[in-house]
Amino acid sequence: MIKNMKKNCKVLRELILLRFHGLMVFRLDFFGPFFVDGSLFVIQLMAFGAVYANVDKIGGWGIGEMILYIGTFSLLNAVSMTICFFGLNGIPGKVQSGELDLYLTKPVSPLLRLTFENISPGSIPLVLMSICIIVYGAGHLQVEVTGRAVAAYLFWVALMEILYYEMEVIIRSISLYIISTARMEQLEDAGITLCMKLPGIAFYGVYKVIFYLLLPYGIMATLPVQSLVGEMNLGLALYGIFVVFLFSLLTGVVWKNGLRHYHSASS
Question: Which range, of 24-33, 158-167, 208-217, averages the lowest pLDDT?
């Protein structure tokens, strides 16, 4: 176990070094995303400002909670974009071309390599800007910032980041079973877009079942914010942990069974 962890750490280090080396060969590829992603974030923030400028409450949350929510969801998305999105997003293409064969023959987990081989430093400004929005939202609400509150918030952000990652893996692993995952990725985009605008507390009935369990984007930023503003209770905490655990099992099953169904495009 310890030996495998050491080997994986060495692989991760080399993947990151190779990625940075490749980006710096063409420096515009390295610095360009800083400007593009930063500009997109500012535009997105202005759009949110226009939407929520004249709204007093959404599902019982005022503008302060919504600022925290927007910042938190943006942080989850930005961390994913920085670390793993571009690597995972290439899974369907590698399955169709047969390039996945190369990953299966290497003495390292193919999912580990796919996750970290295309990190994107250009998305780091989104992380920093999201943190600024979160700090501003906490100040607007005059949240009592204690070590315990910050630790609880970071715990839920980390847990929801894992859930965000698991959803990305599951959706793209479907390419191991069917020819095209375009519809599934469109469903993912629609779910993320909707839940970036509406917190989970705004959903009721069948919509709550969909966005709290089937496509749990509704809890990803909601639970961290609830923990920070004092709305978290034992039931919510246990439910959030249960959903992450459930999707962790589902991710493992979908990925491993998918590899068993995989047939090289070159065979």
Answer: 24-33
* Burial degree of 142 (CB within 10 A; 0-12, 13-18, 19+): exposed
**Going by C-beta distance under 8 Å and a sequence separation of 6 or more, which residues neighbour residue 259?**
104, 110, 176
Alpha carbon distances (Å) from 124 to 37, 140, 207: 9, 25, 33
Which residue spans within the chain are E strands per DSSP? none
Question: Which of 12-16, 130-134, 237-241 is most confident?
Answer: 237-241
Residue type at 143? V
Strand ranges (DSSP E) for 10-94? Answer: none
The CA angle 201-205-206, to the nearest 5 degrees, is 110
Distances (CA, A) of 84 to 20, 111, 187, 193: 14, 10, 19, 19
The Cα 13–Cα 64 span in angstroms is 40
- Examine the pLDDT at 236 and tell me if it is beyond 70: yes
CA–CA gap between residue 52 and residue 70 (Å, rounded): 11
Q: What's the pTM?
A: 0.86
Strand runs labelled E in 68-170? none
**Assigned token pair, 30:** 């390295």
The pLDDT > 90 percentage for the chain reads 36
Contact in structure between 202 and 58 (CB atoms under 8 Å): yes
Structure confidence at residue 256 (pLDDT): 93
How far is Cα 135 from Cα 114, in angstroms, rounded to an integer?
A: 33
CA-CA distance, 44 to 193, in Å (whole number)? 11
Q: Which two tokens stand for residue 254?
A: 């979908």
